[in-house]
Amino acid sequence: MALTRRYLFHGHSAALGGRVVRIGEGKQAKLIKDGFIDLPASSLTVVGGRSDARLVGDQLTGIAATVVRFKSATASSEGVFDDLKGHYAVTLHERSAETLTTTTRVTAEVQGLEVGLTGSNVRMQVQLVRGGFTSQSSTASGETPVQLDPRTTFEGVSFVDKAGRRYMLVVEIEPQPFQEQDTFTKLTAAASDAKFARRFGHTLFLPAIASKQAPTAPALKRTDGGAVQGTIIKPLRWRGAEFPGATIDPETRHAVRIPDLGTIYFGEISVARQSRRVTMIRAELGSPWGGDLAACDFQDNGSWG
User: Fold this and answer.
1) What values do phi and psi take at 280, rounded to 5?
2) Are 233 and 173 in contact (CB under 8 A)?
3) Which tens digits make up the pLDDT trace of 8-20?
4) DSSP for 162-222?
């Protein structure tokens, strides 16, 4: 049978994942072999459809459950042809699949997230973290338009010390650059515009420029594969008192280092020609345990082939 042109769906979302590899410090440190944050996720097959994962806190067991706790979480991926009757006609060989358009949606949400050993010097608590993408089938340029879900948000991000004192971190979404610049080409072109750089340069880790400074070729942060790195959040700030000894990264302003917990990165985005990926929370855990954690990680794209 002859090969035919078809749409290759792709989308995934994971509510939580990672691995704890160490408990204890110094000579008392212990290597943990089975410290996986082992939870179901959501992923599409190449033909699209729907994939959902609904999680509750007691699904997480073992050593990871002593470091990470949550109340509930969901991960969802859906990929469909927009015209159901048109899809029906394709199954009858009355029209070609490439005459149709597609939409792919991915979302992830975690409620009641807590990171840190019970009774330890500090714990991170997040009331709600949610995010997602919606993408359309590739345009004539070959790029996939991908937009951030308008419901993407952080609520109630705080750090609690051993005495129960709570320190609130303000984590706000900066959606406009990634809504209006919904393709790789649009985003990289915007980065060369001085007005964009002054207003949204922090989302692409661009250096601050003066109001009358002429635009220059942007020094975008990229992966080895060429994907542009950035953040979907406004610069972090504390509401009220800062957590003692905490440091907000002065260059990227999307990460905070908390003593006895680790470094927490918020709203990281990677933009390639055919896909976008966001990790709402990424933690490099350190002292009195070591490992890595991600919460609400999702990617959306697809292509004709």
Assistant:
1) -65, -40
2) yes
3) 889 999 999 999 9
4) TT--EEEEE--B--HHHHH--SHHHHHHHTT-HHHHHHHGGGGTPPP--TTPPP------B
pLDDT band at 214 (very low <50, low <70, confident <90, very high): very low
- The most distant pair of C-alpha atoms in the chain lies apart, rounded to whole Å, by 71
What is the pairing mode between strands 102-115 and 7-23?
Answer: unpaired
Hey, what are 296's tokens? 């609400």
> DSSP character for 2?
-
Give the global pTM: 0.94
Contact between 83 and 100 (Cβ < 8 Å) = yes
How many alpha carbons lie under 13 Å from residue 174 in its C-beta half-sphere?
Answer: 24
Nearest 5°: phi and psi at 90?
A: -60, -40
Amino acid in the structure at residue 25:
E
| Residue where the block lists tokens 């994942």 | 17
197-215 burial, b for 16+ CB within 10 Å, e for fewer? beebbbbbbbeeeeeeeee
For 170, residues 6+ apart whose C-beta sits below 8 A from its C-beta are 157, 236, 237, 238, 239
Question: What's the rounded Cα separation, in Å, for the pair 115 and 234?
Answer: 23
Q: Decide if 303 contacts 48 (C-beta within 8 A).
A: no
Three-state DSSP state, 65: helix
Alpha helices in the chain (DSSP H): 84-91, 176-180, 184-190, 194-200
Q: In the chain, where are the structural domains located?
A: 7-185+227-304
Residue pLDDT, tens place only, 235-282: 999 999 999 999 999 999 999 999 999 999 999 999 998 889 999 999
